[in-house]
Amino acid sequence: MPRGRWASLTVRLDLYERLRSLAASRGATMDELLRQLVGSVEAERSEAWTRCPLCGARLKASRLERHLERVHPRRQPPASWQPPSS
Ligand SMILES: [Zn+2]
Asked: Could you tell me the pTM of the whole model?
């Protein structure tokens, strides 16, 4: 557990119960759980956006493959198109 200063956080009771059971299922403390959740939100926010080479839809780079399979199952992207490097 990281050393340092502490503060309390006020949340509604139903959210507290959900966080507590999520922490228990992961074997994490509440502090560790919140760090994991904040880390995943930050990672999602920093993820690159891209455009579908077939329809131009704007989407997260990690969603592109699934978008191509679901929305354009029979079409191939142009030969000149390169998938995002991330
Ligand atoms: Zn598309």
From this structure: 0.54
* Residues with a beta carbon under 5 angstroms from ion ligand 1: 52, 54-55, 57, 71
**In angstroms, rounded to a whole number, what is the distance separating the alpha carbons of residues 75 and 38?**
38
Q: What secondary structure letter does DSSP report for 85?
A: -
Task: List, in sequence order, every residue forming a beta bridge with 49; answer none if it has no partner.
Answer: 60
Q: What angle do CA 68, 49, 44 make, to 5 degrees?
A: 105
31-50 pLDDT, tens digit each: 999 999 999 888 888 888 89
Q: Separation of 80 CA from ligand 1 center, angstroms?
A: 16
The separation between the first and the last C-alpha atoms of the chain, rounded to the nearest angstrom, is: 32
Least confident stretch, 15-19, 51-55, 64-68, 74-78: 74-78
Between CA 23 and CA 52 the distance in angstroms is 37
pLDDT at 86 over 90: no
